[in-house]
């Protein structure tokens, strides 16, 4: 016979526990639905990481600029040496031709010109000394042979110098490729991070950057700060004329710039040649360690490794090309680590 006993009801305590657990599950589910996917960075975190990558890319860019500059100098030096070698070889050939004529004449008369023996000797210097001592050569021949030997030594030295510089050029080209890859890698990593943002986050970030750029390209009241010199003022005016131009790594004007590309271009417009890289520009003039002593147009060097440079704009402001994704603009020097100024 089937039992008709009523099922046992759960205790009040058990009901309370079950109810609480259910409520907690609902809350956790709601929180999970509203939370960002596990591992996803917030907009501000992405921006911070991207800014860091841009700074690292700029460090590599300055090394890239240095390698480019060295490559250009080496190519010019090698070209000059090769031209000198070519001209020297022509002179040497003429000297040999003149001795060859003497040798031919003496050979026809039944003699062997000592100059021919000299060229066949395993030790020309030794033979020349002996021949001169024994008066086997005329003073004219001795002088001609000395000129040939001097020219041969000169050409050997220049060829060795060219060979060393060619090796240096090869190493510089390898460094150039390495730094270019480093820059491209940092920029690619930055773009990957930016691609993790939603369309809404990207729009918000773009708006923030546009507002910052708008504020930074509008010159603030710079007070009564004077220029370091007429040329510094001219360089600063040149930099002002390209405000809003994009930062492009390795670029030195006139429509895009990296940091040292802007400063070297600006001073070139004022008729002053300064080194291409920020590290070299740090040694291009008199250092000024107190910000209060800076004048408009002075170079300002940032960060311990000197990888960033701009032009002092007065009132604690710098006019510079900041980083990839930014434009030539004014910015507070306090936003970066100031090392010293340089007065050209």
Task: Walk me through what this model shows.
- With 344 residues, the protein is α+β, with helices and mostly antiparallel strands.
- Helices cover 60% and strands 8% of the residues.
- It contains nine helices and six strands, in the order αααααααααββββββ.
- Strand 4 and strand 5 form a beta hairpin.
- Helix 2 runs antiparallel to helix 5, helix 3 runs antiparallel to helix 4 and helix 7 packs across helix 8.
- 27% of the residues are buried.
Short structural description:
The protein has helices at residues 12-34, 43-108, 114-120, 124-133, 139-195, 199-216, 230-240, 259-269, 278-281; strands spanning 286-288, 299-302, 308-314, 317-320, 329-332, 338-343. With 344 residues, it is of the alpha+beta class.
Task: Spell out the key features of this protein.
single chain, alpha+beta, six-stranded antiparallel sheet, 9 helices, about 60% helix, disordered N terminus
Strand content bin: 5-15%
- Mean pLDDT, rounded to whole units? 79
- Find the count of extended strands (DSSP E, 2+ residues): 6
Fraction of residues in helix: 55-70%
Strand order of the largest sheet: 1-6-2-3-4-5
H-E order: HHHHHHHHHEEEEEE
Indicate the overall shape: elongated
Helix-strand category: alpha+beta
Using the CA coordinates, give the radius of gyration.
Answer: 37 Å
Number of helices: 9
The largest sheet, given as strand count, sense and whether it forms a barrel, is: 6 strands, antiparallel
Report the end-to-end length measured between terminal Cα atoms: 111 Å
Low-confidence stretches: 1-8, 10-36
């Amino acid at each position: 016979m089937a039992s008709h006993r009523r099922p046992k009801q759960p205790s009040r305590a058990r009901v309370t526990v079950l109810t609480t657990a259910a409520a907690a599950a609902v809350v956790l589910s709601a929180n999970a639905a509203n939370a960002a996917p596990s591992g996803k960075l917030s907009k501000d975190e992405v921006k911070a990481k991207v800014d860091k990558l841009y700074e690292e890319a700029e460090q590599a860019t300055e090394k890239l600029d240095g390698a480019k500059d060295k490559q250009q100098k080496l190519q010019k030096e090698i070209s000059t040496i090769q031209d000198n070698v070519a001209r020297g070889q022509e002179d040497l050939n003429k000297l040999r031709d003149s001795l060859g004529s003497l040798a031919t004449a003496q050979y026809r008369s039944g003699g062997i010109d000592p100059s021919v023996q000299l060229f066949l000797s395993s030790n020309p210097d030794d033979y020349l000394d002996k021949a001169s001592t024994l008066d086997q050569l005329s003073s004219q021949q001795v002088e001609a042979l000395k000129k040939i030997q001097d020219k041969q030594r000169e050409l050997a030295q220049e060829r060795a110098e060219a060979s060393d510089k060619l090796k240096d050029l090869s190493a510089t080209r390898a460094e150039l490729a390495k730094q270019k890859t480093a820059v491209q890698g940092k920029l690619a990593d930055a773009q990957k991070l930016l691609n993790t943002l939603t369309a809404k986050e990207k729009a918000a970030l773009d708006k923030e950057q546009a507002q910052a750029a708008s504020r930074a390209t509008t010159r603030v009241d710079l007070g009564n700060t004077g220029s370091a010199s007429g040329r510094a003022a001219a360089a600063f005016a040149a930099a002002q004329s390209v405000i809003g131009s994009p930062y492009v790594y390795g670029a030195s004007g006139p429509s895009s710039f990296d940091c040292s590309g802007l400063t070297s271009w600006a001073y070139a417009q004022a008729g002053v040649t300064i080194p291409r890289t920020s590290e070299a520009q740090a040694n291009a003039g008199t250092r000024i360690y107190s910000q209060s002593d800076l004048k408009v147009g002075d170079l300002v060097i940032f960060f311990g490794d000197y990888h960033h440079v701009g032009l002092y704009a007065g009132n604690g402001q710098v006019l510079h090309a900041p980083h990839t994704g930014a434009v030539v603009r004014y910015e507070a020097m306090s936003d970066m680590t100031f090392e010293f100024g340089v007065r050209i």
